[in-house]
Amino acid sequence: MSQQIRVGVLRDYTVKRITFSYSDGSYSLFGDTSYFGAILPNEFADLSIVNDKVNLKKGAVDLGTFSKVYLIQNNIGTSLTLTCKMPSVKARKYEDDFEISPTTKGLTIVNLVDIDNYLAGVVESEGGGGKHIEYYKVQAVMSRTYAFKYLGKHRSEGFDLCDRVHCQAYHSMLRFTPSIDSAVFQTSDVVMVHGESELTDSYFHANCGGQTCEPQYIWNGKVEYLNSFRDTFCIYTKQAKWEKRVSQEKWKEFLIKKYNYPIEDSVMASLIYTFDQAERKAFYIHPVLGIPLRDLREEFDLKSTFFSCYPEGEEVVIKGRGFGHGVGLCQEGAMKMARVGYTFDQILRFYFPGSGLRNRNELLYFGQPLKITSFD
Length: 376
Known about the structure:
The protein has 376 residues and is an alpha+beta fold. The protein contains ten helices and 21 strands. It has helices at residues 115-127, 133-149, 178-186, 215-219, 248-259, 266-271, 293-299, 331-339, 344-351, 360-365, and strands at residues 4-9, 17-24, 27-31, 34-39, 44-50, 53-58, 61-66, 69-73, 79-86, 92-95, 97-102, 107-114, 161-162, 190-194, 198-199, 204-205, 241-247, 307-312, 315-321, 329-330, 356-359. It has a seven-stranded mixed β-sheet. Strands 7-6-5-2-9-10 form a six-stranded antiparallel β-sheet, with no helix packed on it. Strands 15-14-21 form a three-stranded antiparallel β-sheet. The two termini are 27 Å apart. The relative contact order is 0.12.
């Protein structure tokens, strides 16, 4: 009971010209309702924007301008190579169908893709290769949940989701990691829910530094199924610790200008560069000062808000833990859990203790929980 969704691709770029060339299997080419034959081996379609229309060429033959161009696969399991010419972007491969339309800025390229093919591409784009299959199952469930929760997020632009981290990274079809395909298949239709049927926001980050973060520390709002807790699975991984130095002058200037730090108070002046964070906090030094750690992270490009600091010479030495916002699933911790034998549902239960697993089709049509793996 799979379905096709509309994903806007190459959204990081203003595409003025692009080619679609044969990769695996033939495609039928249409300009509006006119059929222009198939894209066969060694053939390509060249599309560019001209006077708010899509100019279409098949090879060197100019076929005219159209409101929309379609490339429809003639058989299941086919793919095309997309090569953006203006601007120049490294070629990408995608499965399934395409719809191309003009805007005032450039071409909108929509991949009409089977949900499982999309998820496989997302998991490889987000997670890369070399991971345990149980970790890929974790990512597949989280990505599927996100896709269905936010389907239609870009409806006003003509597609459901985009290929940027604004939605989920989707930089090509699955190409290098066959176990991801297995992970998507083995978790087919499984989604995360809280309550009876509400799809879960599957937040994740690279490394929590040994303790996940309270959502309200980052976004000013609680998430009922997430709370801060200790995570020892990630503390010896590559992004568990970091250090950065910032000039004291810049540090002080930021705190005084933005937050009116009471530098005239002798006690507070002596503390301005000194902060200890044994457990995750929301504010620098003391909540009464109203200095969110997330603002310091953004201003000084820190890897996380989980840091302590002290003065040394003319600098502030910042010693931190983790990488990312710290809410939800810790990727490096989850990878370690998978390597030492935890199953995907155990990993999800560890990081999302207030959520459960349901079969989406059963959820939609019967309201029944998934019987094999559920969180109780």
